[in-house]
Design brief:
The chain is of the alpha/beta class. The protein has one domain (3-120): Rossmann fold (3-Layer(aba) Sandwich), CATH 3.40.50. It has five helices and five strands, in the order E-H-E-H-E-H-E-H-E-H. Bound molecules: magnesium ion. Magnesium ion is lined by residues 9-10, 53, 55-56.
């Protein structure tokens, strides 16, 4: 039963991603509104995969990725970044600091589900 952490400050986008994750078998979605909130959720739940926005208040996605990768407990959790259209520099930086993959907005639900299944080691929905 994979626990998927969705980190996104926009309620609309968070809802859209969380809704798509209902199509991942037996998954449970945990939501966070920014990087600091995500760290709290990482401490209180066992997270199997992180879906993370880049631009967020309080703590952005890039900072969160570097903290997760620097933490012995969390460093191996797959991270997929959800990036703004055309933000090529952000994508390169995200991968450089340890994100596994990125998906540009607007989100293609099928693509997202496929990518999440790949990183969860599943066989697709
Ligand atoms: Mg945002």
């Amino acid at each position: 039963m994979p626990n998927i952490l969705v980190v996104e400050d926009s309620p609309t986008m968070r809802q859209l991603i969380s809704f798509a994750m209902k199509r991942i078998s037996n998954s449970r979605v945990i939501e966070a509104t920014d990087g600091v909130d995500a760290l709290k959720k990482l401490s209180s739940d066992t997270i199997d995969l992180i879906l993370c926005d880049i631009n967020m208040p309080v703590m952005d996605g890039l900072k969160l990725v570097s903290l997760v990768r620097g933490n012995p407990t969390f460093k191996d959790i797959p991270i997929i970044m959800v990036t703004t259209e055309g933000a090529e520099e952000d994508r390169k930086r995200a991968i450089a600091i340890g994100a596994n993959a990125y998906l540009p907005k607007p989100i293609q639900t099928q693509e997202l589900i496929k990518m999440v299944n790949t990183y969860l080691g599943g066989s697709g929905s």
